[in-house]
Putative 3-methyladenine DNA glycosylase (Flaviflexus salsibiostraticola), 184 residues
Amino acid sequence: MRDPCEVAPMLLGATISTDVAVRIVEVEAYRGEFDPGSHAFRGRTARNASMFGPPGHLYVYYIYGMHWSANIVCWPEGQAGGVLLRAGEVVDNHEVARTRRVAAKTDRDLARGPARLAQALGIDGSFNGTRIGDRIRLEASPEPVEWTSGPRVGVSGAGGTNEYPLRFWIPGDRHVSPYRPGKP
């Protein structure tokens, strides 16, 4: 139960797992009503209700009418805030990840991007509201990792600018997704 901007870099190097394990290399923090890039900026809706807590649960949403993405909820119940799992490296059970991500040309692309990461882990809408430790596990990195931050990927408006450097990643990691600005 902390500010998503504090939790985000702490997740880098951690392993998240279902029947597949992924080492997290890139995340984005979202700060609810304080963040114009957040789904919860304008308040609670049926879609974003899980983002309002409790902390330590998943907020899973459908995007572009075809992909699932997952956030770890951080702030206390009633206050929206979470960290988007943006990219990772599959570190266990590659075979299962490959069956879920048949379009991936290389193992590098199995979990490179939020929708790919969710798909590799088998995360879908049924995970929305799931407590970490139930159907999904999170293990901290055994040692601190170096990280950097900058604007979020694909977020339009003020929330995608340098005013909100809320994307965190492990520099030089080949599984980090390429930066692209949001569409105006």
